[in-house]
Amino acid sequence: MKRILPIFGILIALISCKSTNIIQESELKMANESVNLYAFIGEKISVIEFDPNENNTRIEIDSITGDTIRKVSYSMDYGFKNKFKVIGNVFNELKTDTIEFIAYNHYGRPKFENYKNVLLYISLNKEKGHYYHQKYQSDQVQKDKNGIWKGMNGESIKELFMEKRNGVLKARGIFE
């Protein structure tokens, strides 16, 4: 009997910890498949700069004269290929454990590069089949002493997401 009581206590503790994690994760997940946005907590794997002006020339034929026209476009942004481990989905579900996406930044390297864990906002370009970062949108996050993800000023993940949703993402026309 003396051995059963401690084992029973440990079992109850493990079950209660697991149920806390399930509740926390279910509170985070929001979805609307008609909105082209994925918000997730990610852990940085790599951020690699690339030249966004490479292969920027198109050759077209003028429909009236038949002349060959060489069109060149230039990006004023820096380009980055990013790879992150998906720790948790916040809005819509990325059905993968790692995600690669492209980010453009006019001011240099992206701010999210400086953080181990970050709440990121990306969208899928269905024509190109690539995910793209919602320019300048990220929030540094960390786990608190109870293992709950929070912003650096103690905001909940939901508060961080709703601030972006009702602010810049609404202004960009992603949300009505």
Instruction: Tell me the name of the CATH class of the domain at 27-50 and 78-171.
Output: Mainly Beta
Order of helices and strands: HEEEEEEEEHH
Radius of gyration: 22 Å
Please state the second-level CATH architecture of the domain at 27-50 and 78-171: Beta Barrel
Protein name: Lipoprotein
Structural overview:
This is Lipoprotein. There is one protein chain. This protein is α+β, with helices and mostly antiparallel strands and 176 residues long. It has a domain of 118 residues: OB fold (Dihydrolipoamide Acetyltransferase, E2P) (Beta Barrel), CATH 2.40.50. 22% of the residues lie in helices and 40% in strands. The protein is built from three helices and eight strands; from the N terminus they run αββββββββαα. The strands form two sheets. A five-stranded mixed beta barrel has the order 1-4-5-7-6. The protein has a two-stranded antiparallel ribbon with strand order 2-3. A hairpin with a 6-residue loop joins strand 2 and strand 3. The radius of gyration is 22 Å and the shape is elongated. It starts with a helix and ends in a 5-residue tail after the last helix. 18% of the residues are buried. About 6% of the residues have low confidence.
Write the SSE topology:
Elements: H1 4-28, E1 38-50, E2 57-61, E3 68-72, E4 78-91, E5 98-105, E6 117-125, E7 130-143, E8 149-151, H2 157-166, H3 168-171
Parallel strand pairs: 5-7
Antiparallel strand pairs: 1-4, 1-6, 2-3, 4-5, 6-7, 7-8
Protein name: Lipoprotein
Organism: Winogradskyella eximia
